Amino acid sequence: MTEQPDKPSEVMPDLPAVYVDKLSFCYRSLDDEMRTKPVSNAATAEPLSQPRAIEDISFSLPRGKLMLIAGPSGCGKSTLLKCLNGLIPNSYKGTLSGEIQLNGRSIKGLSLRDLALTVGTMLQDPDKQIIGSTVEQEVAFGMENLGVPRKEMRQRITDVLQQLHLTHYQNQATFALSGGQRQQVAAAGLLVMDPSIFLFDEPFANLDSRAVDELEALITRLLAKGSTVLIVEHRVEEALRLKPDKVLLMHDGRQVFFGDTEQFMEIADPTQVKLPIGATLRAFSDSRRAREALLQPIMTRRKEEIASRAPALAFEDVHFRYGSNAEEVVHGITCQVWQGETIALLGPNGSGKSTLVKQALGLLRPTSGSVRIFGEETRSLSVAQLASRIGYVFQSPGAMLFAPTVRKELSFGPENLRFAPDTIKASVDQAENALNIAQFDKRSPFSLSFGQQKRVAIASVLSMQGKILLLDEPTAGQDYRSYISFMEYLRSLPELDALLFITHDLDLALRFTQRVLLLKEGRLVGDGPPLQVLSDPNVLEECNLRPTSLLRYLLAEKNAVA
Amino acid sequence: MLINFVYIKRDSPIHRLDPRVKFTLLFAYSLSATQTSNFWFILAGFTGAIYYYRLTRLKWSETKRAWYFIIFITFILVFMNFFISGGAIVQGVDLSQPHRLFDLPFIHFTRAFPFLAPTKFPFTVESATFILTQTMRNFSIAFLAVPIPFTTNPDKFGIAFKGMGISDKISYAIDLSLRFLPTTVRDFVTTLDAQRARGFEIDKLRGGIFGKVARLAPMIVPVVIGSVVGAEDIISAMELRCFGVGKRTWLVELHTRRVDRVIITLAITGFAIVTLLNVLGYFYTTGPLHILHTQGIPAFLAP
To answer: Would you say residue A374 lies in a domain?
Structure first.
């Protein structure tokens, strides 16, 4: 008979729940690669996107406590999680050294099955975690694999769904749930297995604020129950609201800091991780300078350059439904985008942001109403014709990157539009420089990191020389430092008449735009300067937007002046 | 995440059937129908399949995309094969004395330059019957297959295969792969939109046939790479929740009613009888035991 790992009740109270000592890991594949081609890529300006090992990590966390693991992308956070949940060394091979003890027991040699009874892992993207086709099946999946009898499974599923207020969704298909519900369902699938330690990998990355609230409530409940929770997150501001007991800061696979939250706030660098505004202000000598540094709307055109009187893009009473029997999803939206504007399109999941933007490009055509580009009705233009005037970049670069080299990727659009060879070369060069990807020119887009791929995706749309650029979630999946530098690239894009992006991130709208469009259930419920639209707490609440510390600070400042 | 097939929740006799019945019926009938080209036998199957399909209460608007596909495939199979083979793909028919109805002008290959010459293509009673039989065969199989995704709750697929004696792992793998198809379709649509936004026009590809295929790379590469990466994610997620470590239990339970058992018995018996008749047909060259090996030309076509 195999020895069962300790149940929480049997855990000795004085032993730490998680104890890590001098942990190092090196991916074997990387090792092999290094041996065969040691220096070929060493000279490139940006680090390669190879999985980086972790080195000499030591910490310990008592039972029932919350720990935050912070650090930029590629710092080894995910590798550390994989060591804790057993994917390393069970699924990923490599050289592992050091010691990990969970609830006082070394996990060396334990199988994934044994570990899964102690550790529940919430993957970064709930879409990747959910296996079952219905909510009930998803929750049952782990128990089924452990051979739990059907009757007991039914009971435990009923309990956990009740606890998370999901009973209503029990028989719903998982793919039909909203982003927040998916996360809750994925969490239910872990809770039902009753692990004593929970790992969350960037849980706030893909959620709107309502969903973040629900997740915070869940984590608080777990802690109250005596579970130990580890969160990996670069959105430190959100994670700090949970008041973690310990913070581990990593950089380049090494441990930079481990200690209490208060100490962490003193040493943390606000340009590397997103901190509450208070900590950021402390980094500046006076608040006006901070304000200037933070709030710099992107100007796509200077006033004197604006030639045309017609709006760059105009939606006129746009209605849309998928198919004649389907429900209407966009209910009569009218708005103009003028030359020189940078606009953030905000709104909860499913409010029709992407649907609206797709009308501009003809990927979807309005059921009634019209869309005009520089006064020209788009209905008579094909998608390809529109693509030469207006660029649209999809959220996931993986949906469009295909070419063997970055350069070929960038010339694909211009070739489709039958540009002359000289023009293609010029526009590709320009796009490469604008997004600072010229050094990857000959590399495969698939060998780049996510943030780099995102820049290639945007450059490959820019190279078509459209005057209006639409971006769907330009910063999703990037850490704070890379997304701020990414937004700075956008600032310097030449020859752009208007920039419009969809986002969940209020601070992004506050810091980089002059105007916000707020959508809710297919209707435009707010249009104006960011601070004005976002100043009404009721509107924020209705649209699942939660005020960030930056917004609160700016509003307080505004009120003080008034 | 994998998305489900279009299950349409509705109460119909077919919705209520145990999913194993639907699969058994499909397999038993398909394997029987491929053993014969007898017009009357296939006609009987076709009539039965139409009746079965009517019981599902599926609407044309719900299933039309599946049917367009089936009509296209059937057209290719039946007519293209017929013409390419010069009408010679006729199973179990004495072709020594064809009953010619009329001739179609056609071309055939010759030994001498220019290697192509006009010829007459006979349209016979036998080939007409065979076209009809083929079409009915394809559609009758489709009438049994199409309702499966539309009338079966997706949470029952895995356990259905498990209940037919397939191992835990393979049953779950089949369940996952059934959902992989609609997921790939969705990814394909996203990629198509993303590339159209870059001026890509799938209906205006340049070049010859190979050139056209090469120009499809912008569509195919992202979808294939996305699927491979997606599959790896699924494997990790499954391992983290102990998949494949031992004998698993299944939350969903299948309940067989009497009608389910009767249909399964009939389907398997029918298949056994057809197979037996088919084998005997090789030993008896005439009479009722040879019937599956004859074409059974209907009277209105008879010469």
So the answer is: yes
pLDDT of residue A283: 66
Domain that holds residue A324: 303-389+466-561
B137's CB contacts (< 8 A; 6+ apart) are: B33, B34, B37, B42, B45, B46
Separation of alpha carbons B230 and B248, rounded Å: 24
Confirm whether A171 is domain-assigned: no
Give the residue from B161, B175, B251, B255 with the most A CB atoms within 10 Å of its CB, the best one to mutate. B251
Q: What is the pLDDT of residues A260-271, one digit of tens each?
A: 988 888 887 777
Q: Is A341 on the interface with B (CB under 8 A)?
A: no
A136 touching B (Cβ < 8 Å): yes
Query: Does residue A120 contact residue A199 with C-beta atoms inside 8 Å?
Result: yes
* Residue B241 identity: R
Select the residue from A122, A133, A136, A177 to test the B interface by mutation, using most B Cβ atoms within 10 A: A133
Residue of B nearest to A186 (CA): B237
**Residue B277 · residue A125 · CB < 8 Å:** no
Q: Is residue A24 part of a domain?
A: no
Residues, chain A, total? 562
The verdict on A427 touching B (C-beta cutoff 8 Å) is no
Residues in chain A within 8 Å Cβ distance of B222: 398-402
Chain B CB contacts of A149 under 8 Å are 249
Please count the structural domains in chain A: 1
The first and second tokens of residue B266, run together, are 């009939």
Strands A94-102 and A105-106: antiparallel
- B46 token code pair: 């076709």
CB neighbour burial string for B39-54, b if at least 16 within 10 angstroms, e if fewer: bebbbebbeebeebbe
Q: Where are the domains of chain B?
A: 10-152+256-303, 154-254
pLDDT score at A300: 66
- CB atoms A402 and B217 under 8 Å: yes
How confident is the model at residue A488, as a pLDDT? Answer: 82
Which range among A286-300, B16-30, B196-210 has the greatest average pLDDT? B16-30
CATH number at residue A525: 3.40.50.300
Mean pLDDT of chain B: 85
Q: B249–A413: do the CB atoms touch at under 8 Å?
A: no
Asked whether residue A471 is assigned to any structural domain, the reply reads yes
DSSP state of B78: I
Q: Among all residues of chain B, which has the CA nearest to that of A133?
A: B155
Tokens representing A62 are 């008592």
Q: Report which secondary-structure segment, H or E, holds B139.
A: helix B125-145
Residues A294 and A548: their CA atoms lie apart, in Å, by 14
Mean pLDDT of A203-226: 82
Least CB–CB distance from A412: residue in B154, B198, B234:
B198
With beta carbons less than 8 A apart as the criterion, state whether A24 and A97 touch. Answer: yes
Q: Distance between CA atoms of B210 and A162, rounded to whole angstroms?
A: 57
**A154 touches B at CB < 8 Å:** yes
Please name the amino acid found at residue B154. Answer: P
